[in-house]
Specification:
Elements: E1 8-12, H1 16-27, E2 31-35, H2 39-58, H3 64-72, E3 74-77, H4 80-83, E4 89-92, H5 98-108, E5 117-120, H6 127-131, E6 140-144, E7 154-159, H7 165-178, E8 181-186, H8 193-209, H9 215-226, H10 232-239, H11 241-255, H12 263-270, E9 285-286, E10 289-290
Parallel strand pairs: 1-2, 1-4, 2-3, 4-5, 5-6, 7-8
Antiparallel strand pairs: 6-7, 9-10
Helix pairs in contact: 1-2, 2-3, 8-10, 8-11, 11-12
Length: 301
């Protein structure tokens, strides 16, 4: 059950989650290769990781020397085939599309170390289906991180049908090394957190669509009434409504009518109002910060 920090870790996907996961690994002492076909995404990810580390230095959480050492452990690549050679761990965090995830696993598995573990950061898709792409399905596990990764301590470890006890134990040790708290979930659509969050966000959007309250007041109700760090509409903007819609459609297909996506979500995605990443979702954003008073109201629908 080795979590030797000389092991090679590959993180596939340089989006928001991949960036955070790569930061977590290099900060914990692991040599990490971040892979993406977009050179711009890799450049943005490197800058973002540097900024997180700089913020840590300014807050006294890490030393400048530790921050420099973390960046030295990070490398980037545009070719998964080259990056995966001899790797001991792989975490894929690409878009929530089963075919893409299966393709990554199928390409990487034959090139990695014989006892390598492959983790998928999916929030709703089937680990069993992803694992079935390769012969050694026992070495595939779900490893669901939360955004922002450098602040959120939870990781859901998801057992597929073939995931071995050894794979679970080794991955739990890895979470410990990353300073994360892990929980074990038997594969089920939406796991625990995504299933609850999808329903909460969907219901909040129905309430907004029906004019029950403004976006700001719906979010304030959850923050102040239930001590949630973010309201469900704020969280949807952060996650991206396209991602939320994909998850809801999958849950609707597998778990039934209670997860039917709110028409307002479908309308917003069609309009390109995906959230923070496009500068406009339920709220408008400038420099990634919400503009006061910009939340949707019934009259704006």
């Amino acid at each position: 059950m080795s979590t030797d920090k000389n092991n090679k870790v590959v993180v596939v996907g340089a989006g928001l989650m991949g960036t955070g996961i790569a930061h977590g690994f290099v900060s914990a002492g692991f040599h990490t290769v971040l892979v993406d076909t977009s050179a711009q995404s890799l450049s943005n990810a490197r800058t973002a990781i540097e900024n997180i580390l700089k913020a840590g230095v300014s807050l006294g959480k890490v030393s400048a020397q530790q921050a420099d050492a973390s960046m030295a452990r990070l490398s980037t690549a545009g070719d998964l085939g080259e990056a995966a050679i001899g790797a001991n761990w792989l975490v894929e965090t690409v878009s929530e599309q089963l075919a893409i995830k299966k393709s990554i696993v199928a390409q990487a598995a034959p090139l990695m170390a014989p006892d390598a573990i492959i983790a998928t950061n999916t929030s709703a898709l089937s680990v069993t289906e992803i694992a079935a792409t390769i012969d050694s399905a026992d070495r595939v596990i779900g490893m669901h991180f939360f955004n922002p990764v450098h602040k959120m301590k939870l990781v859901e470890l998801v057992r597929g049908l073939a995931t071995s006890d050894e794979t679970v134990a080794r991955t739990r040790d890895l979470c410990d090394a990353l300073g994360k708290t892990s929980i074990i979930v038997n594969e089920s659509p939406g796991l625990t957190t995504s299933r609850m969050s999808a329903m909460l966000g969907n219901e909040a959007m129905y309430m907004l669509q029906e004019g029950i309250a403004s976006a700001e007041d719906i979010d304030t109700a959850l923050r102040m009434g239930f001590n949630h760090p973010m309201g469900p509409l704020e969280l949807g903007d952060l996650t991206g409504w396209d991602t939320r819609l994909s998850v809801l459609r999958y849950l609707h297909q597998t778990l039934g009518e209670k997860f039917r996506p709110c028409p307002l979500i479908i309308k917003m995605v069609a309009a390109g109002r995906l959230g923070r990443k496009t500068g406009h979702g339920v709220y408008r954003y400038e420099d990634n910060k919400a503009v006061p008073g910009s939340g949707l109201r019934a009259s704006a629908l």
